[in-house]
Amino acid sequence: MKKILVSRRLGExxxxxxxxxxxxxxxxxxDNEPPRFVGSIFFARIEKILPGMQAAFVDIGSDKKAxxxxxxxxxxxxxxxxxxxxxxxxxYKEARATLEISLPxxxxxxxxxxxKIHISKKxxxxxxxxxKNLVKEIIPANCGVIIRTAAENSTVEELRVELDKLLxxxxxxxxxxxxxxxxxxxxxxxxxxxxxxxxxxELEIFIxxxxxxxxxxxxxxxxxxxxxxxxxxxxxxxxxxxxxLREKELMLPSGGFIVIEKTEALTVxxxxxxxxxxxxxxxxxxxxxxxxxxxxxNIGGIIIVDFVNMKVETCRADLLKYLKTLAQIDRGKTFIxxxxxxxxxxxxxxxx
Length: 352
Description:
Helix content: 25-40%
Low-confidence stretches: none
Distance between the termini: 23 Å
Order of helices and strands: EEEEEEEEEEEHEHEHEHEHHEEEHEHEE
Structural class: alpha+beta
Largest sheet: 6 strands, mixed
Number of strands: 21
Number of helices: 8
Shape: globular
């Protein structure tokens, strides 16, 4: 079961998710930072087609254009379309958008512009077949879905309730878009709504030290508690974990350490043996800590992990296999690409 802790202090909102007592996720929003639009849907206009790239810059009604890649679409400059933001604008890079809209709920994700059914790989094959057959009974012919891990053992009625809500939301989005003349935001969730939705089925308690947040969230759930005091995170023993998320260098149990460096192009995580004697053990510890920090810091894009070089091929294969296992825990779309002969592992991650 999950506990959600939310603290509001000095112009910023911090949220921590504990899963059976373990620090699972961390989020932060600051008042003085630009709004985040990942997952938001915009009524947009194609401003410039990039010849030969199947890509375009689109006007979404903000200061910066969004970058859109598309396949098998006959789009022209000036076309009005609906896009969803996959990655926020960062430094000199535009936000990245997609035509493949997805509307998530707890058990399923509606794909209103697709007709495919995808199922979480974490669900056993027999249950996967059962759920797929149930969804086929209730999904409209012109829509697709992703069946999430939380849907395991669900009844057709439970799935239908979520699907109906998502279909209603999609129709509302289409109705709003039909009346739009200029590019603008149509739909988006705030941080608290997203956190509650994604963890609703496993939620034990939502605890906050802010009365405004308390009143906002009690509209969604009665599993809520107000914390009187100024040390919510310290009381639950997560203050040190939060502090570590701001550190560049983190120690490993065996005596080694990792260094996390974020650049505009990519993130590099360097593994050092320090006083450690067992290189394989150091790399295994580094893999676990690196993947946890990637998840907690919500690092996206290209990530390079420079492990200590190991000459034994079985050790290298075991390390790569372990990384792929850790990647499956992540709610983001995380892919372990490969390991070079020098021990460099390339990872790509889409936080959304």
